[in-house]
């Protein structure tokens, strides 16, 4: 487990300020944040095109229902657009009855309804995301020596092998479940870690790792 995993575990409590309750309230109380001028997004896209991107870039390739996006350097939310390249600090929110799918390299990431996702780190060797509400399903085809991690309010999930994984965070943000349909993952919380083999589910309740199946 990389040192960055321990660092983000130590600050997850503070980082949940952008999680489920706060994020939903901001979107519901201020509809204008959902519909920031499209010119802002276009300017961001143009600036990204001028940069040298890392080996892994996340792109949104499917949207159903209401999906909102906030670039890391901005305060405004906007309607998400297809094929927009995500980078560190960007956030996505999928509303009720919505769905979204992204590709991060060869990995397909599917977001369910009422899901909040933040992109923490993109580099040639490391991808780190944060899930604070809702569910994501990961279909990892290959890793090629790269590391893929999903941080949650209770701990961090590191993908060890190609496979299919589902991670769920409940609406209160106090329980996370990790299901490995095939492949292998490692779950870390409060200084402890446990592997999740194929066809197994683990739950994180507070700082406790609870094998469920």
Model description:
The protein has helices at residues 3-10, 12-15, 20-29, 38-49; strands at residues 58-64, 67-70, 78-79, 85-86, 91-94, 99-104, 107-111, 115-122, 126-140, 147-151, 156-159, 163-169, 175-182, 185-189, 192-196, 200-205, 208-211. It has one domain (3-211): Jelly Rolls (Sandwich). A hairpin with a 4-residue loop joins strand 10 and strand 11. It is of the alpha+beta class and 213 residues long. The protein has a 17-stranded mixed beta sheet that branches. Helices cover 16% and strands 46% of the residues. Residues 1-37 have low confidence and may be disordered. The relative contact order is 0.14. The two termini are 24 Å apart. The chain contains 4 helices and 17 strands.
Number of helices: 4
Order of helices and strands: HHHHEEEEEEEEEEEEEEEEE
**CATH class descriptor:** Mainly Beta
CATH topology: Jelly Rolls
What is the level-2 CATH architecture name? Sandwich
Distance between the termini: 24 Å
The count of strands amounts to 17
Beta-strand content: over 45%
User: Please, how many domains?
Assistant: 1
Low-confidence stretches: 1-37
The backbone outline, from C-alpha atoms, is: globular
Average pLDDT rating: 78
Q: Compute the CA-based radius of gyration.
A: 16 Å
Helix-and-strand structural type: alpha+beta
Largest sheet: 17 strands, mixed
Helix content: 10-25%
